[in-house]
Amino acid sequence: MARDLLDRLGLTNHHRVIAGYAGGPEPRDGIVGSVNPATGKTIAGVRLDTADSYEETIQRATAAFKRWRAVPAPKRGEVVRAIGDELRARKEDLGRLVSLEVGKILAEGIGEVQETVDIADFAVGLSRQLYGLTMPSERPQHAMREQWLPLGPIGVITAFNFPNAVWGWNAMLAAVCGDVTVWKPSLLAPLTAIATNEVARVVAASMGHQGIFELVIGTDEEIGERMIADKRVPLISATGSCRMGRHVSQQVAARLGRCLLELGGNNAVIVEPDADLDLALKGVVFGSVGTCGQRCTTTRRLIIHESIADAFYEKLAKAYETVKIGDPLAPGTLVGPLINERAAEGFERAIAAAKDQGGQVLAGGNRVSSGEVASELSGGTYVRPTVVRAPAGKPFPVAQEETFAPILYVFTYRTLDEAIELHNSVDQGLSSAIYTGSVRSAERFLDPSGSGSDCGLAYVNLGTSGAEIGGAFGGEKDTGGGRESGSDSWKAYMRRQTCTINFGETFALAQGIRFE
Ligand code: NAD
After folding, report:
1. Residue 24 in 3-state DSSP?
2. Residue 167: CB within 6 Å of ligand 1?
3. Which among 224, 305, 360, 498 is placed 20 to 30 Å from 94, CA to CA?
4. Which atom of ligand 1 is nearest to the CA of 473?
């Protein structure tokens, strides 16, 4: 089945791909194995870039940028529209490949590609709306305006868990802005990157535009470091852990480049006593177990009013028991595997630390043993989504960290102010939510003075996980401050120029300065 899929996506004949490769995920002799986390079996090998091929790619991208920026933005939009159409046509296959390579259930794999299609549509409209402002000059017979100009070849570093959509958010906007994308994907999902990039590359080339979508696949030491230090790449858009973002931002800052950082989250949901509790339960369960807890927006903390906590825990534990864990491509599965053994060890370490720190496991808490899944899945890394009650009145440091696994820590509160303080007490600031029946509480959570949620995304009566492409996506604090996707996020991919024109004959200085 995997072979047919690779054939349909043109991967078996691709010069980078070695079908039938039996090596593992550790790069060896210039090859990395892409492993299906549901089975532990290698899907195919992928040839890695070297310092020389990186150099060739950047030179190609730099030359292509000079041609692409000269194409009028609405014409660039036409290319993006054709890419969106091709992605639409291949949505099912690409979504299946996402599921195969990173283990998310098929509906989410396909949903991810839909997100790229959506952002392509958005970008097409945007290609006619890269508006600058005009402003009155203080000098007679002078005009002032701002214009937005293409920036250059953009470096896009992506995390394993959204191997298609994060590229889409960046590449579709960058393309209409007149930039060329050089994509460095995660080594855990190189096949999705090759197949996705090929769609864009081939469509653009068929319309006469070569080199707009480039791909470099390699280790962080050989390729990642080279790219972030490269002055020819004016913007690095990096999605991944806070640890990675801290390093990347320092390297890019050292050469005075620009960074757009989309880093880890530690997202919480507050549930008020007057909330619609069925709605809250659905949102919390999807948010905490969906994608096996491997979304940046996964719900990691539940902050619930003490008067409803016990009844809610009971319902939560029941819901967790019924969640079907297994093959992400099988109908009915809600939770697939973790990405690899290292992630499963991280899950176990966090649960051990939580118990040490006084936490009480209310649901899950362990791995799914190989005997509990079908034999072909015995090499996969399956864990049971877990709920841990935090100890009352004691520090609980494990909940300050993002463990990229389905663990939900639950806390209780008495007043909303206390809940918001607890909510904001972590280093990350990505996604946040409140379930409430009260306009006052909802507005308190969104208080425009800034005293409510300190996150980049704030939801009322819906969960933390997932976002629509129309709004700007990103987070504050250790999440990195970047914004991608909708609204005016496109500005990150352009440079702003303030233009002043003297159409008169007098020598006039600003601030009324006389120089005669
Ligand atoms: P990771 O930090 O291990 O890797 C992310 C990417 O950074 C990979 O492509 C990796 O190769 C690259 N990288 C690492 N070191 C580098 C270096 N020195 N130079 C250049 N590139 C380097 O993250 P991951 O495990 O792939 O993904 C999970 C993390 O990503 C979680 O923390 C999650 O919250 C975060 N994430 C954030 C968002 C968001 O939009 N905020 C979206 C998805 C994932």
Report:
1. coil
2. no
3. 224
4. 40
Residues carrying CATH 3.40.309.10, the chain: 267-470
The closest of 129, 167, 122, 135 to 148, measured between CA atoms, is 129
Q: Is 198 a catalytic residue?
A: no
| Residue 268 binned pLDDT confidence (cut-offs 50, 70, 90) | very high
pLDDT per residue as tens digits for the range 307-335: 999 999 999 999 999 999 999 999 999 99
152: CA distance to ligand 1 center in Å?
23
Does the pTM surpass 0.70? The reply is yes
Fold entry, domain 53-263+480-497: Aldehyde Dehydrogenase; Chain A, domain 1 (3.40.605)
- Euclidean distance between CA atoms 3 and 94, whole angstroms: 14
262 is known as an active-site residue: yes
**pLDDT value of position 516:** 81
Side-chain-facing half-sphere of 324: CA atoms under 13 Å:
10
Residue with the smallest CA separation from ligand 1 atom 24 is 159
CA distance 510 to 516: 14
Please report the pLDDT score of residue 371 as a whole number: 84
Where in the chain do CATH 3.40.605.10 domains reside? 53-263+480-497
CATH number of 267-470: 3.40.309.10
Quick one: average pLDDT of 94-114? Answer: 98
Q: One of 262, 272, 402, 484 is an active-site residue; which one? A: 262
Q: From the CB of 263, is ligand 1 less than 6 Å away?
A: yes
